[in-house]
């Protein structure tokens, strides 16, 4: 019976001639005499799942049933919702005092709602409901991408949500290859890739509603082996324990082989290989004289191979100078340097001469002054030793060059050259004084000439 009554009401409403004229408008249907809605047209933004109120009350009673209709949109056709207080649709819709409430808003509730009175053209109010909902994100490209070194790779994703989400790309554990913390856009292209761009990249969509959504993609770069050595020269001595280390990066993983002086390393109890991740070790324990030489770490995979040499020696290294190149004194200079040697430094050879500028050569000739001395005990930390020597009897404001090499109990190391100069300010002062003296003498001569001329006249 209720359904039949509802249909009857609808028929009465939709037929303009079936409604009697309102007593409020008898003899006067001008717009200025119409009641007014208490609100203007509004855009009502509401988050999905929340409630929204659509105000349609008048400033005075009209004694006619108000009709509320949802207009046609992408979600469906138009639909009558209320005639007066009579509900014609969803139970989530309710009416009280000219205000319609939608409980638990859904995306399909978005659209335009029209409040009007049948037969009164000038009395209409339209509200727009915009349903906001959190973002969702999907990857367009594969979640796992394998690419060859030097090629390009594109990561792409798409997002939905209201408002339209903003998409940001980030890299797990660090910055993007561009150096930025993040970049905005639907896609990101990496060109000329190498192993440094490998990792997990995240596409995150956010629109300020709910929590951001994200999807993560992984890039794996395939490339031939690349090798880094911790030390290219390892200085050691007999009975010491040393580790030769090479770090190998490769995809597919590389096979690592150690050789010495071009031949496979004999796997005795003293020489042991250790492989752990990218770090590959060859341990010599204890070191013997026959262990000195050049070792090679060679890695290979299906894409190529690479190798690095590591020298094991008991020779001291080339000195590293630590003194300032300009002396604080006119006739002396203190030269300081560090040298690395497993064994104590027993002797050093220091040679010096006046600098010849561009004519200088690496040849040590008779014109060099040789100051070879036994080391009086060098200060050091570990295998690094610090030495010093003061050269006297030098000429002021003069440039010199020096050559230094050190010796341990077994052999001499490689020579290193250094340029220094004695104090130059004194020469500058003397030159200035000489110029002042010349100027003064010239001035006096001019004065004397002028006086003589005056006496003549």
UniProtKB/TrEMBL annotation:
Any one Gene Ontology molecular-function term assigned to this protein's record: axon guidance receptor activity
Record's signal peptide: 1-18
All residue ranges annotated as the Fibronectin type-III domain in the record: 315-425
Keyword Transcription among record annotations: no
GO cellular component entries: axon; neuronal cell body; plasma membrane
Residues of the Ig-like domain: 135-216, 225-313
Assigned keywords, A-Z: Disulfide bond, Immunoglobulin domain, Repeat, Signal
One Pfam family per UniProt: I-set
PROSITE patterns xref list: FN3, IG_LIKE
GO terms, biological process: homophilic cell adhesion via plasma membrane adhesion molecules; synapse organization
Protein name: Protein amalgam-like
Tagged with keyword Disulfide bond: yes
InterPro entries per record: Cell_Adh-Cytoskel_Orgn, FN3_dom, FN3_sf, Ig-like_dom, Ig-like_dom_sf, Ig-like_fold, Ig_I-set, Ig_sub
Organism the protein comes from: Hirondellea gigas
């Amino acid at each position: 019976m209720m359904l039949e009554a509802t249909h009857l009401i609808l028929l009465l409403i939709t037929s303009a001639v079936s409604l009697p004229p309102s007593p409020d408008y008898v003899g006067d249907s001008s717009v200025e005499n119409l009641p007014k809605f208490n609100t203007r047209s509004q855009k009502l933004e509401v988050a999905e799942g929340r409630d929204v109120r659509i105000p349609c009350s008048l400033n005075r009673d009209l004694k006619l049933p108000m009709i509320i209709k949802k207009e046609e949109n992408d979600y469906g056709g138009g639909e009558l919702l209320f005639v007066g207080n009579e509900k014609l649709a969803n139970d989530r819709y309710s009416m009280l005092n000219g205000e319609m409430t939608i409980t638990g808003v859904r995306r399909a509730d978005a659209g335009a709602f029209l409040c009007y009175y049948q037969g009164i053209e000038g009395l209409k109010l339209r509200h727009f409901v915009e349903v906001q909902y959190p973002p969702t994100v999907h990857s367009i490209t594969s979640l796992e991408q394998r690419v060859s070194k030097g090629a390009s790779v594109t990561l792409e994703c798409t997002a939905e949500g209201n408002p339209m989400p903003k998409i940001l790309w980030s890299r797990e554990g660090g910055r993007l290859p561009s150096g930025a913390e993040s970049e905005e856009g639907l896609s990101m292209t990496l060109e000329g890739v190498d192993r440094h761009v490998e990792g997990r990249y995240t596409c995150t969509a956010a629109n300020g509603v709910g929590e951001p959504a994200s999807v993560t993609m992984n890039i794996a770069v395939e490339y031939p082996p690349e090798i880094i050595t911790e030390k290219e020269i390892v200085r050691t001595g007999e009975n010491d324990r040393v580790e030769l280390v090479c770090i190998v990066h490769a995809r597919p993983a590389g096979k690592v082989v150690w050789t010495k002086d071009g031949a496979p390393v004999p796997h005795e109890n003293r020489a042991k290989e250790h492989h752990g991740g990218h770090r590959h070790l060859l341990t010599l324990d204890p070191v013997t004289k026959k262990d000195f030489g050049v070792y090679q770490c060679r890695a290979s995979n299906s894409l190529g191979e690479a190798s690095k040499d590591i020298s094991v020696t008991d020779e001291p290294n080339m000195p590293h100078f630590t003194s300032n190149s300009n002396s604080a004194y006119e006739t002396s200079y203190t030269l300081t340097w560090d040298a690395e040697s497993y064994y104590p430094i027993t002797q050093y050879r220091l040679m010096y001469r006046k600098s010849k500028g561009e004519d200088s050569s690496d040849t040590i000739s008779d014109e060099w002054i040789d100051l070879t001395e036994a080391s009086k005990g060098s200060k050091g930390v570990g295998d690094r030793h610090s030495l010093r020597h003061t050269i006297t009897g030098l000429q002021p404001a003069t440039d010199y060059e020096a050559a230094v090499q050190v010796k341990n109990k077994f052999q001499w190391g490689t020579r290193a050259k250094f340029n220094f100069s004695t104090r130059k300010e004194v020469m500058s002062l003397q030159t200035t004084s000489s110029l002042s003296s010349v100027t003064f003498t010239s001035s006096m001569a001019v004065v004397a000439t002028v006086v003589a001329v005056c006496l003549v006249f």
